[in-house]
Design brief:
- Keywords: Oxidoreductase.
- It holds the Pfam family adh_short_C2.
- This is NAD(P)-dependent oxidoreductase.
- This protein is an alpha/beta fold.
- It contains nine helices and seven strands; from the N terminus they run βαβαβαβαβααβαααβ.
- β2, α2 and β3 form a beta-alpha-beta unit.
- Helices cover 41% and strands 12% of the residues.
- The protein has a single domain, classed as 3-Layer(aba) Sandwich (Rossmann fold), CATH 3.40.50.
- The chain has a seven-stranded parallel beta sheet, sandwiched between helices.
- It is globular, with a radius of gyration of 17 Å.
């Protein structure tokens, strides 16, 4: 795809109130898959808290759009996912502004392309793990005391947790850690009726792609899937909705795979 091609993050169907009365926290929610999920959750009636890392204007624009188009109740918060205090302060803000928390979507992640494994620096490795893996742990730790029976946690992992990626080695390792966290935490929280599931997107066209990938690879991004193209955020967001709502009440410890047909497992 062309580097300046816009991502499609618009919901495709009218809402049916599946998240009415719920408060949902979406980290990394100001663009890409997170923004598409926020749009869909808003259409389904959720009150939202969406986080951003550096681009507050982008987050504000999303919030204004959702207030106008979906009559959404939404607040935005800055999150530095690699810092424990920031994750806990975020949940405090959710409770302060909304009084409850029912759905946690852990999506804030970073990736850095590197073809030489020996060139991955300690700083890069620590930043990637602290943001992607530690950030999920800290956000969930902060949220758990406030989650009630029937609450849902949905974590973004990746197709790269299953098949690896030759140029995203440390990133893929964090996604594997997130996968193990999903399965372990689901078992730990099952008796509390708090469900923990994941979504493992394949190549999805988001702003992260042209920002982090070599220019010569952007145009062919996603063409190696059986469907021959990258996916769009709007094609991934329904996975998060399904896992967050009561439709998935008997599903925990599982992962959905919107990846264009890439085989996963044996």
């Amino acid at each position: 795809m062309k580097p300046d091609a816009p991502a499609d993050d618009m919901p495709r169907y009218p809402g049916s109130g599946r998240l009415q009365g719920k408060v949902a926290l979406i980290t990394g929610g100001s663009s890409g898959i997170g923004a598409a999920t926020a749009r869909l959750f808003a259409r389904e009636g959720a009150r939202l808290v969406v986080t951003y890392h550096s681009d507050r204007d982008e987050a504000e624009a999303l919030a204004e759009t959702l207030r106008r188009d979906e009559n959404a109740e939404i607040t935005i918060e800055k999150l530095e996912a690699d810092k424990r205090d920031s994750c806990f302060a975020l949940v405090d803000a959710v409770l302060r502004d909304h009084g409850q928390l029912d759905i946690v979507v852990c999506n804030a992640s970073v990736q850095t392309v590197e073809t030489d494994f020996t060139a991955i620096t300690q700083d890069q490795l620590e930043k990637t793990f602290r943001t992607n893996a530690f950030g999920y742990v800290w956000t969930i730790q902060a949220a758990l005391p406030h989650l009630r029976k029937g609450s849902a946690i949905v974590c973004s992992t990746s197709v790269n947790a299953y098949r690896g990626h030759a140029q995203l080695m440390d990133y893929s390792a964090t996604k594997g850690a997130e996968l193990a966290l999903i399965r372990s935490l689901a078992a730990n929280l099952a008796d509390k009726d708090i469900r923990v599931n994941g979504v493992a997107p394949g190549p999805i066209w988001t702003p992260l792609i042209p920002e982090t990938m070599p220019a010569d690879e952007v145009e062919s991004f996603g063409t190696d899937t059986p469907m021959g193209r990258p996916g769009q955020p709007a094609e991934v967001a329904p996975c998060y909705l399904f896992l967050a709502c009561a439709d998935a009440s008997y599903i925990t410890g599982q992962v959905l795979h919107p990846n264009g047909g890439i085989p996963i497992g044996g």
